[in-house]
Batch of 2 targets.
Target 1
Amino acid sequence: MTREHHLREARQSFLDTLVRKGIRDQRVLEAMKAVPREAFVGPDQAEFAYDDCPLQIEEGQTISQPYIVALMTEAMQLTPEDTVLEIGTGSGYAAAVLSRIVKKVYTVERHRLLANLAEERLAMLGYNNVTVLCGDGSLGWPEHSPFEAIVVTAGAPSVPQSLVRQLAIGGRLVIPAGANHYQQQLLRLTRTGEDETETENLGDVRFVPLIGKQGWRDTEDRAS
Ligand code: SAM
């Protein structure tokens, strides 16, 4: 079997897995089907690209489990006109998935190497509606706010108020949060009014820590 054939088959069974685990939003499934996850990991990991598990990337970080990417993307309740912010670009994979669903994606990564690699990959693959910034995403990206949705792909000790303030009214923040470094609750917080929010708990998840002014301190950046 050629490598391409193996990847094609693996990609189909990976989509079946997402559906079996409960992903229903067709735009999310279409986007997950279209983005080549193997292009976002090193060559040594490419054969595992369609396994439903996180994989190691540079700087001791991870590319999230595909089911979790799909779950978080679905939880953002996106429409094609939305402008969204992602905190934790990592490999750029989730930004690529988002870019196929919404009008514009801004994404922030604290590691310069990861931000540069993600920017290169996204450009090479033609995801031209994504802009990458290297910086502390716990503070958001106020210049481009308000956002219809914000997703944080690292675990925060609590919900950063900077991010809540950068949501449009009706906007959704999807974030893993909790006092434990590597075990969080996945929250969806909807900004229902100027100073009002509603929070839903979508279940337990496990992410690398969000390091920054409204996250954990940087001595706590350890690989999971
Ligand atoms: N979304 C990524 C992908 O598709 O590959 C996976 C993200 S990985 C689980 C979490 C990322 O958050 C890491 O790359 C980490 O460096 C980054 N991160 C942690 N704290 C951050 C912060 N304050 N601002 C921006 N990025 C941060």
Target 2
Amino acid sequence: MTLVLGIESSCDETAAALVTSDRRILAQAIASQEEEHSPYGGVVPEIAARAHAERLAPLIDKVLKEAGKTLADCDAIAATAGPGLIGGVMVGLVTAKALAMASDKPLMAINHLEGHALSPRLADSDLRFPYALLLVSGGHCQILRVQGVGNYQRIATTIDDALGEAFDKTAKILGLGYPGGPAVEKLAREGDAQAVPLPRPLVHSKEPHFSFAGLKSAVLRAHDCGEHSDADIAASFQQAALDCILDRTRRALSGMDAVSALVCAGGVAANQTIRAGLEGLAAEFDLPFTAPPLPLCTDNAAMIAWAGLERLNAGFAADPLELKARPRWPL
Ligand code: KG4
Ligand code: ZN
């Protein structure tokens, strides 16, 4: 059994977790910065970096104590090294380097997107490579063919906004605060998904890419015209977003080599309507559908520890202490 300490600090969640190679999360802790950022309607990088710096060490201490472990029990220290807000990423990475150095353990520098991409395998021991992955978060919107650890074929990406960003902007327009995804989902339950005519950008286009900027502008116009209830706008937006996702993912699957499953990960994968829609789409292709449990969808450290475990298992070498944090780092 291998044990890895994971650290996540790339956006607005400070998180630490201890995960074993037999898929047990021994302890995990997340400090959300929602309160600090919500007055600004989005994440303020400087505030985020300071909050990570204040909270990370006590969080790590807490998970170690909770699990009754010390650094000496860990086989590696894994931390997000990018992509993300550079100040926050540096806080997590430099902490991991210090811990790795002090305990003489290997440092595993993890691409945050790889954390999301492999997270479904932490929850589902039956999930085998290769699988088709819709990775939908606040910063990313991609379809990948996950072929193995460190082996990702990117099939599609967004040409403008990420899907989570569209949810967050819709929430801002409707005055629902930040983060917007869960609030839009909740309000949408009370609305009519057909009430507001909204565009479905790029639907039926040949390449499976995404675009959400036009949808966001249409939401703003629908709100400003004053003819629709907020609930109808939320429901119609969510439906339009789902239609785009289903069409684009269908297109991607049609052109993709065989896969074992359709998988959804990233913060937006927490959305029940989107999960249900994707489950139906997977059935069209005779594929099982899986998505991690909700706490593993949004940013967390268990997925970073798990990516570290997967990399160790696959024989990847430890990363050097000179390694730099990367604000941009495509998979
Ligand atoms: O993966 P994540 O925690 O952070 C990034 O790596 O970006 O994703 C956060 C994004 C936010 O845009 C948030 O609004 C969205 O995921 N999100 C949701 C839901 N929960 C979180 N979007 C739609 N429905 C949800 N239930
Ligand atoms: Zn994320």
